């Protein structure tokens, strides 16, 4: 197995807007990241993924880019970015940035020019159609048609909000612009890119009429718009022109790629270094993507999805693993549902969160933690729909009401799934606004910051933060690299469906087993440890092969 820096990296997704505010405007900024680099370094992070920081009207929190070469003044300046890149390098932390290349903001000068002047070259950068009627009936990800009428009889296409018009990758001039942008940032010193919504760039089925899948007469763009035939040509060209011959990495948000096709995406000669798989992150949803359609999943299904994903990726290349990101609710709530510990239940909270930590840090692939996961942050209670900022959440609330769901229930569904759960300000301390800002925070601060915060956990050597620190150190330890990073993964079949168990094996036969009891029961599991490397019952021997409630461990056998 070829060694690469990005296979060994410990990633951390940083949602800039909520990380640390230094200028009292209520939103995080680049100087805030610089200030907190020591915190990340101490945790053991070696790769930062920073969410979009470009000038943007923030209709979708920066995933609507108005200038790919700039920094939004609310986040700082290009000088701040350069300083961040150089300080991160000193701290041996690589930085990758989010590239949103499926669409721009409708305020981007390209789009403005395209609207103003149909003869300009920028008209070709987007997808316009002359038509009396809506040209097709795909439903955009944030609700309503993918088509918006720019003027009478002229439509443009958007996979996401109408303020996020899709780019036309068929246009060679547009592709050349994209290549220029990627090269610009590589020259600035970033180590690679997270490629947003990249499997939507080739348009196909969504341009034609489809069988409606809902009362609105539309059909979900997910199944019609992702991974369309011919996408590989664009992706291969991008890789060849911008990335070949560099040691930069790419991690693609790649929904819609079936496991059988993964080789093309992440194999030897694949388009990307790795992709994010959504199969188990979306276990709580039924097909169609409506949050009110919650799936009644079991641990047995969770295990099946995890190992199907891990084994398919391992056969064909390299993957990225995560339990949380800025589009998901918090993992404690997602995976333990009504059994999830409240912040007050300190012991149970530690056990559940550390069990997930052992699971994540044992999997094969580049690990990405999401900010606050190292503290065991939980979902934030939102008591009215007006408290949410996220446009997706507001749309999902409306969808629930339209499906005749009572407002109280609709609010519960969006509370469970809202992307704002993971976007609440980072709790640096138990003080006012969780130490995130001296100003007015842009989004509600989770009221439990008095119990779950970085200061308290940094000081407490028994905290989740320090448990993560130990697991990260273990994963980075040269003695275990062959096993924990490069080793094979194989499920250990366990009768109790609430126990997730697997082994990682190096080519020389060295084996580490990972055991995670997801239940509140004591379980007999038949474990035989030669040496315990990590155990969330800190010091308790795993005697007689028994796992305590929520016990999780890594053992040498
Ligand atoms: C995926 C991003 O992760 C999400 O936050 C965003 O809303 C959409 N892509 C559109 O860019």
Task: Walk me through this protein's architecture.
- With 557 residues, this protein is an alpha/beta fold.
- It is built from 16 helices and 20 strands.
- An eight-stranded parallel sheet has the order 11-10-8-3-2-1-13-12. Strands 14-15-16-20-18 form a five-stranded antiparallel sheet.
- The model has no long low-confidence stretch (mean pLDDT 96).
- Bound molecules: 1-deoxynojirimycin (NOJ).
- The site of 1-deoxynojirimycin (NOJ) has 9 residues, from loops.
Brief summary of the model shown:
The protein is an alpha/beta fold and 557 residues long.
State the helix count: 16
End-to-end gap: 23 Å
Described by strand count, sense and barrel closure, the largest sheet is: 8 strands, parallel
Structural class: alpha/beta
How would the global form be characterised?
globular
> Helix proportion of residues, in percent?
25-40%
Tell me the Rg in angstroms: 23 Å
Q: Which hetero ligands occur in this complex?
A: 1-deoxynojirimycin
| Overall residue-averaged pLDDT value | 96
Oligomeric state, counting identical vs distinct chains? single chain
List keywords for this structure.
single chain, five-stranded antiparallel sheet, eight-stranded parallel sheet, 15% strand, 557 residues
Write the layout of secondary structure elements.
Layout: H1 5-8, E1 10-14, H2 30-43, E2 47-50, H3 78-90, E3 94-100, H4 109-116, E4 128-130, E5 138-139, E6 147-151, E7 154-157, H5 172-188, E8 192-196, E9 219-220, H6 221-225, H7 231-243, E10 249-253, H8 262-266, E11 274-276, H9 299-316, E12 320-321, H10 331-336, H11 346-362, E13 366-370, H12 391-402, H13 407-417, H14 454-459, H15 464-476, H16 481-485, E14 488-491, E15 499-505, E16 511-517, E17 523-524, E18 531-535, E19 546-547, E20 552-556
Parallel strand pairs: 1-2, 1-13, 2-3, 3-8, 5-9, 8-10, 10-11, 12-13
Antiparallel strand pairs: 4-7, 6-7, 14-15, 15-16, 16-20, 17-19, 18-20
Bound molecules: 1-deoxynojirimycin.
1-deoxynojirimycin (NOJ) binds near residues 160 and 326.
